[in-house]
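JOB MANIFEST
job_type = single_chain_structure
chain_count = 1
residues = 133
[input]
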Amino acid sequence: MEISILFAKIIGLYCLIFSLSALLNFQRIPLLVQDFAKSEGLFYLAAIIALIIGIIVTILHPIITPDWRSLITLFGWLSFLTGILHLLVPELALHIFRIMTGYRLLFLSFNVAMLVSSLILLNEGFGIGIRFQ
């Protein structure tokens, strides 16, 4: 359970900061995507980082339960698969990335879901005590 608490804190803080940044700066995101797509080295580095994070989380936290801990495992698998997709089929990964950022409702929905997930993880990780039924 301690590993779940640790990952809840780390992933919760990451997702909170990332989703708030994306939601507050959503008008700049398409420009950032264009710049990101131009830099093959940065794209490759991001893929390696995502893959490493995904491998670490999926190996250390292979827990599927009907509670908040499954969010951690889901994050690990999404990171792992994102890293693989970026490395093996970079054109497809960029296409999906552009679609996600090109459709405002999809982009906002994804980041609101990430924000809610981060709040759940932070609640459990830091023991705030709010119970979701």
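[summary]
The chain has a mean pLDDT of 91.
The CA atoms of residues 83 and 89 lie 10 Å apart.
exit_status = 0
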